[in-house]
Design a protein that fits this description.
The chain is 39% helix and 20% strand. The chain is of the alpha+beta class. The chain has 4 domains: 44 residues; 51 residues; 90 residues, ANL, C-terminal domain (GMP Synthetase, Chain A, domain 3); 92 residues, no CATH class. The strands form 4 sheets. A 4-stranded mixed sheet has the order 3-4-5-6. β5 and β6 form a beta hairpin.
Length: 358
């Protein structure tokens, strides 16, 4: 089809329309053209105003203070998600330096971005300090990403390496945790945080990682003997479980006589004594058992041979001579020793009492 013939046909069709139809078509055409122009301009504006991250992993306090400074300076910003603030990309470094010069953010942690820019002339000690700060910051960020954690701070004590194995000391770590209001950490979560920190540091054992909350109270993962709150929760669950079990047994016994389980309601209350009594018992066997026996017998009879000696002269030089009586006496010696060692059998029993008694 020729475009000229198509234009002639459209013109004739348009002339046949009345005034109202012509206005509708003209308005629709202008609306489509205007919408296309708006999309082009909006896309171009978005392309020209790219935003970059100014700060991330911010606390609510620091985020509020930084937003106040941005609004005071008239700088546009965006908050794509909690703890992240974005500003126009062309001014992100300038704004970051300006905000940092005012002491913000106060509670944020630095990570391995410390090594993005290498300082000329930095010593080995400076590099170790930067690595320690970066490792502590990365661990704090990771712990803060957990759901119950609002704020976390990690301190590592890395001993100086020594060529002597006997003088090497184990590293240790301490973690201060602030939980979200209304939430608390379970024993599994505490153990998970300890394992997380221990796995990030060489030769660090989970037992050398200590956790405290914002009130300075230690957080323990010792199970039933842990914190008082965990122990109380465990006792309540134990009590409810046994009461429900006895209630079910009562219903099962009475249901055949009444007709069905729906007609029976049983309530059982059990008073438990949760005082645990542990004892150590030692028993000795009265029947002695011979462990070892040692016998020594020594017997000697007769005197020792006469030795040549005396006053210098002929008699002493020629030795014993008949007719000269000897002054030595006959000797008889006897010795007997018997030693018996008895084994005393001993039995040590550690008796751990039940968790609860009725």
């Amino acid at each position: 089809m020729n475009f000229k013939d198509l234009a002639i046909q459209l013109t004739r069709l348009y002339e046949r329309l009345n005034r109202a139809q012509k206005l509708v078509i003209a308005g629709t055409l202008f609306a489509v053209i205007g919408f296309i122009i708006f999309l082009v301009l909006y896309t171009s504006a978005e392309r020209n105003s790219n935003y970059a991250v100014l700060f991330d992993h911010l606390s609510s306090k620091d985020a509020g203070l930084i937003i106040q400074e941005l609004e005071k300076e008239g700088i546009p910003y965006k908050i794509p998600k909690d703890g992240v603030i974005e500003v126009p990309q062309d001014s992100v470094y300038k704004v970051r330096i300006n905000i940092a010069s005012k002491g913000f953010p106060e509670e944020s942690h630095v990570g391995f971005e410390l090594f993005d820019q290498q300082q000329f002339g930095a010593t080995d000690f400076d590099q170790k300090v930067k690595f320690l700060r970066a490792l502590e910051g990365e661990l704090a960020r990771t712990i803060q990403s957990l759901q119950p954690i609002e704020q976390a701070s990690v301190h590592l004590a890395l001993p100086k390496e020594s060529v002597f194995v006997a003088k090497q000391s184990a590293p240790s770590a301490s973690v201060v945790i602030q939980t979200v209001d209304g939430m608390r950490l379970s024993r599994k979560q505490i153990l998970g945080i300890k394992n997380l920190v221990a796995a990030a540091v060489a030769n660090l054992e989970p037992s050398n990682v200590k956790l405290v909350n914002e009130f300075g109270e230690p957080l323990s993962d010792a199970g039933e003997d842990g914190s008082d709150g965990d122990l109380a929760k465990l006792q309540i669950e134990y009590k409810n479980r046994y009461e429900n079990a006895y209630e079910d047994k009562v219903v099962e016994v009475l249901a055949p006589f009444i007709g069905s389980k729906d007609r029976v309601v049983a309530k059982v209350t059990i008073d438990f004594d949760f005082a645990r009594r542990d004892s150590v018992e030692e028993r000795y066997d009265p029947e002695n058992v011979v462990r070892s026996e040692q016998n020594m017998e020594e017997k000697r009879e007769g005197g020792t041979p006469q030795q040549i000696g005396g006053v210098p002269g002929a008699v002493s030089n020629i030795g014993p001579v008949q007719g000269i009586e000897s002054t030595s006496t006959k000797q008889k010696y006897q010795k007997s020793t018997n030693t018996i060692n008895y084994e005393i059998s001993k039995t040590v029993s550690n008796i751990k009492g039940p968790f609860a008694t009725i």
